Amino acid sequence: MPPKTKITKEEIIEAAVGLVRKSGAEAINARAIANCIGSSTQPIFSNFCSMEELRGAVIEKANQLYQKNEKELIEKELYPPYKSTGMAYIRFAKEEKELFKLLFMRDRTNEPMALGYRVDPALEMLMNATGFDLNTAERVHLSLWACVHGFATMSVSNYIDIPDDIISSTLTDIYTSLTRKIKEADEKE
């Protein structure tokens, strides 16, 4: 009898990510993943201490895919770097609806807030582009991100599909207005 093929941790994560893409995060369970990889649930629990650990690995893999998407758009130089982060977020929502929901539309009750805990690379880009200090950049970023997240959630929920050129010009208008207003207020002080 030939030896059994060992199913790796990465293969299990990939199967779980595929399951999320197809059926949403709620579909993650040991039996469904075992069906995807053509085995029993034994390899899952040999590689992961719990389903919670596996879910964490799936979130991390989804985040890696998101970061890759963002990096690729920045490298294409279709937009200024800071704007590329917003456009990549919206593009990810359009192309990877279920992974987007997993990353950005899940309950975060027991997770720390992103702002204030570290200088996000997008904030750093914004500070470099405008000369704003961290507090001012966070205010501008939060305003812009509310708009970006709005566009993304409209796409994810199939509410409306706004063309990229309209999204781009809207983000430019908001960015220009906010930064101009802040710079004018600073000049008056």
Structure explained in plain terms:
It is a single chain. The chain has 189 residues and is mostly helical. It folds into 2 domains: 1-64, Arc Repressor Mutant, subunit A (Orthogonal Bundle); 79-189. It is 72% helix and 0% strand. It is built from 9 helices and no strands. It has helices at 9-23, 30-37, 42-47, 51-76, 81-95, 97-104, 121-130, 134-156, 164-188. Helix 4 packs across helix 5, helix 5 (81-95) packs across helix 6 and helix 8 runs antiparallel to helix 9 (164-188). The longest helix is centred in the middle third of the chain and has 26 residues, at 51-76. It is elongated and about 70 Å long. It starts with 8 loop residues before the first helix and ends with a helix. The mean pLDDT is 91.
Total strand count, please? 0
Counting DSSP H or I runs of 4 or more residues, the number of helices is 9
Q: How many domains in all?
A: 2
For the biggest sheet, the summary is: none
The sequence of SSEs as H and E is HHHHHHHHH
Oligomer: single chain
Low-confidence segments: none
Outline type: elongated
- What's the average pLDDT? 91
Computed over alpha carbons, the radius of gyration is 20 Å
Helical content, roughly? over 70%
Which structural category fits the helices and strands?
A: mainly alpha
**How far is the N terminus from the C terminus?**
82 Å
Relative strand content: under 5%
